[in-house]
Specification:
Radius of gyration: 19 Å
Number of strands: 17
Order of helices and strands: EHEEEEEEHHEEEEEHEHEEEHE
Largest sheet: 5 strands, antiparallel
Strand order of the largest sheet: 6-7-12-10-11
Strand content: 25-35%
Distance between the termini: 18 Å
Structural class: alpha+beta
Number of helices: 6
Length: 258
Amino acid sequence: MIIDFSKYSSVRIGESFEVQILEEPCEFDGFLIGGANNLLISPKPKKLGILGKSFDYIKILEQNEKGMFLEIGSSVKSFKIYHFAKENNLKGFEFLRNIPGTLGGILKMNAGLKDEDISKNLISICTFNQEILKQNIAFAYRFNPIKEVMFSAKFFLEYGFDSVKDELLKNARKNQPKGASFGSIFKNPKNDHAGRLIEAVNLKGFSKNDAMFSNEHANFLINKKHASFDDALFLIELAKKRVFEEFGIVLEEEVVII
């Protein structure tokens, strides 16, 4: 299928490219785009793929007095997982309410909010030819070492949807800028915040054509209208350069550049 990334990706940057649909577990030597919520696509990307509808499912494997064992396909969108957990009185996925994307991308980034992340209630991840237990996966902050395509994952969630935490996490994202963006550009360095560092080197609100560091939160790159790959990449590299020169800190991208 052909996907126009200027319309499909969250930052609205990119051209139209052929994307292979994967409808069953298989070996794939390209890059899965998922919901394209944290992707910057170059004019000449590597081979692209996307999981088909056969991986859009939530299956109850077992339930007991404490909670449910679930298997979730990697193309299920985050809000669908959130609503399933809420409707079934399950706690642990409250943070997915306002995190965009599909499960595959969320697993790949070990995405989370505050003290929550997707690996917290994980049991295992299924790739083409194996099921990898959580204890054998070296998760870290916004990091998952698995290189293979992750087709599904298994979780155990206890009963007791946390309405207080749900409201708290919803409000935690209210200050984030609106508009076409990746979300955060960079991971937060240890004991610091990327947004603070970018603002400290006078790049908050700075723009290159239609690409701009947000005036609301400097760690957000906003596409005002017709930003290009080169515009966005220029700002990313400029922030890394200035922050390193000023503070000796190497900013690490959270956005994936293909």
